[in-house]
Amino acid sequence: MDTKCENKCGPGYPSPLEAMKGPREKIVYLPCIYRNTNTEAPDYLATVDIDPKSPQYCQVIHRLPMPNLKDELHHSGWNTCSSCFGDSTKSRTKLVLPCLISSRIYVVDVGTEPRAPKLHKVVEAKDIHAKCNLGYLHTSHCLASGEVMVSSLGDPQGNGKGGFVLLDGETFEVKGTWERPGGAAPMGYDFWYQPRHNVMISTEWAAPNVLRDGFNPADVEAGLYGSHLNVWDWQRHEIVQNLPLPDGLIPLEIRFLHNPAASQGFVGCALSSNIHRFYKNEKGTWSVEKVIQVPPKKVKGWILPEMPGLITDILLSLDDRFLYFSNWLHGDLRQYDISDPKRPRLTGQLFLGGSIVKGGPVQVLEDQELKCQPEPLVVKGKRVAGGPQMIQLSLDGKRLYLTTSLYSGWDKQFYPDLVKEGSVMLQIDVDTEKGGLKLNPNFLVDFGKEPLGPALAHELRYPGGDCSSDIWL
């Protein structure tokens, strides 16, 4: 691929290492949710100024409300990304916002005025139901074909069904399912593809009817939560392996290494609080092994006698050197050196809120890692409710941004104060040489002070792409 391109390149960067040389992020987009809060208003897309030289630094500079109530905006993706770098007819101008509960897809134009996005199109749930028999949408990735693919958690009735909605990348019309008819996985959530190995791997949360209104431990005992990876043949669009995760419950975010030749990656298992490495074995099929375990804490004053870390988001730096993940319940953010992917080494850890802070309702009786319960986090006078959740890394790997809301139904159950006070966005400085994390005490975006009431801000996206939305071929 021509890396110079003489200004005729498509979107993104020719390689992950080239992306690391990209410009510093100046704005970020975050879906903000009002479902399950005291505010009866539509979810909206917030644009936040994160340029330290700007007079509007750390401020929400634009809000784009959606036309409907209770959508539960969640994750987002682009109309096109670095997988289309070789196509000069493509440009990254539309942000695709699937809705976890309403099953709509909103397409937002960020190309005309990045600081003030506009709604471009609404793909109604009825079209997705009729053409795909899918609903409850999660991850959106662009494909090298120019199409957009969105994963589902269920069918229109809320039963588990891990399929994929295919959208035309220009008109955003629903084309049908990516998978062959009748070939959906039992459950769905996230996915990542690696064409050089003819593979896509998808993860499993639970059926929408199981998770929609909160978490019930009995559903875990009943086997209603995911515990497998589904391995797909990328060319044939069908499942070729159903990989059980040893001691892995609720596999959520999945990341291949960014190097497109790599045949391995990592998945975070939320409830079992461990990280598994998946890899292509000598037979040419796929295997998994557990490489990190966060020990649970024995507690009093919580819904269970043991509290898991609850790994909810993971990220890999663009040079494939560091793995980051958040423990939403314990409240810590971690950095591991993965130079040897089989043996990740802890190089940074920060406690940023969580359920086990001093003075809260939970008393820790036994802890394999800490000598005492961490102090509550206060940033610029604001006591942070909730724990670190969605994370996004700057292209150069030196800044990590995070938000504290997981999903409104679970926020309400585990962190009622988070719903009352709104989530926050924080920034962490990263030591990319030796490893290490340090909170920036001067950075706070407080979504508790939004004009219509406290909001739950979720996933973060930069206009120029990032390490969880770009896939290289």
Automatic annotation (TrEMBL):
It is found in: Nucleus; Cytoplasm, Cytosol; Membrane. One of its GO terms (biological process) is protein transport. It is an enzyme of class 1 (oxidoreductase). The keyword Glycoprotein does not apply. Its main location: nucleus. It is a peripheral membrane protein. The keyword Transport applies. It holds the Pfam family SBP56. It catalyses: methanethiol + O2 + H2O = hydrogen sulfide + formaldehyde + H2O2 + H(+). SUPFAM superfamilies: 3-carboxy-cis,cis-mucoante lactonizing enzyme. Its EC number is 1.8.3.4. InterPro entries: Se-bd. GO terms for molecular function: methanethiol oxidase activity; selenium binding. Keywords: Acetylation, Cytoplasm, Membrane, Nucleus, Oxidoreductase, Protein transport, Selenium, Transport. PANTHER family: METHANETHIOL OXIDASE. Catalyzes the oxidation of methanethiol, an organosulfur compound known to be produced in substantial amounts by gut bacteria. Selenium-binding protein which may be involved in the sensing of reactive xenobiotics in the cytoplasm. May be involved in intra-Golgi protein transport. Interacts with USP33. Belongs to the selenium-binding protein family. This is Methanethiol oxidase. It comes from Vicugna pacos.
